[in-house]
Amino acid sequence: MADLLKNLLGGAKSTASSVASADDFADFATAASPVPPSHAASSAFPDAASTSRPSFGAGMGLAGRPYTKWYRVWERVAIDDFYQEMVIVPILLVIILVNIWGASANKRRAKQWAKTHLPLLQSEYASVGMGGRKSKSQSGQDIPDDFYKEQSKNEYISYATGRQNVAWLDIKLSLYKRYNPVVWFGETAASFLFDSMPAPVERLEATAYSFDGKEKAVVPMKSQGASALGTKDSTYDGFVFAIVHKDKMKQLRVDRYDISLTSTKDHPKLPHWATIMSEASEVTEAMLTPELVKAVTDAGEDLEALIISDQPIDAPKKLNDTVPKKRVYLAMRVNDTPANARLFSVFLRLPDHLVTSAHFRPEAMRKIRATREEEQKKLRKIDEEEKAEERRLASDKLKKEERDRKLSKMTADEQRKFLEKEKEKQQRKGMKKQTMRG
């Protein structure tokens, strides 16, 4: 009876399992004690090897492994393994040094240009530079830090304001990409292979925006002398006139909408490499002053274009784009010669000549106005067609909504009859169109 109770309560089973578990660990009773791994000792530190204690897991899977030279980096690495790095690292250093040298060379080039032209700007404008402060007469050796701003490593911009007849002046200096000789060489090579790719040059671009009688809208009334500006007449007739290098003539006519309105004609007063692009002969005679002709002749082929315009550069797409915006634009190669400085000085004073002399007879302006009115008619027609298309689409949308509303209130039979009538009506319209075409 006692054995039966033990079997029911599991006493005998637990005893058997305990015995079995004891037998399971019998194999480990005769196992050898752990010993330190053989690689723990080093020939360089024999004493340390005898006193070192194995850390937890240090001998797991490493016992019996000999200490070889692969544990010493200086023994398993040769100079042959670094041939690739020996080529890449010098190339990277050369690229970095050339980049730094090119950026520094362009900065020196921009500073040299500023030394020549800063006195000219300060003599004509009250505020020169990006700082917005009044300019002070300085020697050519001292260039203010805010005179120009670095747009990129080969582009610098400047700004001037505070002059009669001119709202503001924008200046952009584009230099060679000395910091990237690969791109520089690629652009030069492409210019020889393709006519559409111009050769890289160092270019000065300056644009003077005229007041044209809008001083009160541009100059704050609180500023000093604003009341006096409103009493002066700075308006002049709008037209397009340009003195262009013949190599740039074709490209300018394609790139600029205002130049496309002009006709090209050589002038005996100008050198052989320059030509006139003007809207009227009377405008040409009024603009070709002896001072301007001499400055253009002395500057030589460094001049690319001198443009007086009131029309947009890009072709207008809306009537608002045809609003006249009078300005004077100069593009020339960067060259710190006295002749180029004189041409730049004549450009700075050209707005004064426009205000005093650019007032022409109605007969001379009739053709110029006719060209602008013709362009405005085209834009007005396009605008009316767009508005008519919008009205048609809106009407079609209302008709479709009304049709859907009617269909939603019909039964299935009524909808079927309605759609059949609609289909027959469309077929009759199609047949009428075919008859009219025949």
Protein described:
By secondary structure, the protein is of the alpha+beta class. It has a domain of 280 residues. The protein contains 16 helices and ten strands. Strands 1, 2, 3, 4, 5, 6, 7, 8, 9 and 10 form a ten-stranded antiparallel sheet that branches. A hairpin with an 8-residue loop joins strand 7 and strand 8. Helix 6 crosses helix 14 and helix 13 packs antiparallel against helix 14. It is flat and about 95 Å long. 21% of the residues are buried. About 8% of the residues have low confidence.
Outline the secondary-structure elements:
Layout: H1 2-9, H2 11-24, H3 26-29, H4 46-51, H5 73-76, H6 83-124, E1 127-128, E2 148-152, E3 155-163, E4 166-174, H7 181-193, E5 203-210, H8 215-218, H9 226-230, E6 241-245, H10 246-255, H11 257-260, E7 263-265, E8 274-278, H12 281-287, H13 290-299, E9 303-309, E10 327-333, H14 338-357, H15 362-409, H16 412-437
Please identify the structural class as seen in this structure: alpha+beta
Note the beta-strand portion: 5-15%
Gyration radius, in Å = 43 Å
Mean pLDDT: 82
Q: Major sheet, described briefly?
A: 10 strands, antiparallel
Number of helices: 16
| Residues in helices, as a percent range | 40-55%
Uncertain segments are 12-22, 39-61
Molecular shape: flat
What is the strand tally? 10
Compute the separation of the termini in Å. Answer: 121 Å
Q: What pattern of helices and strands is seen along the backbone?
A: HHHHHHEEEEHEHHEHHEEHHEEHHH
Biased composition (Basic and acidic residues): 377-427
GO cellular component, one term: membrane
Keywords: Membrane, Transmembrane, Transmembrane helix
Main location: membrane
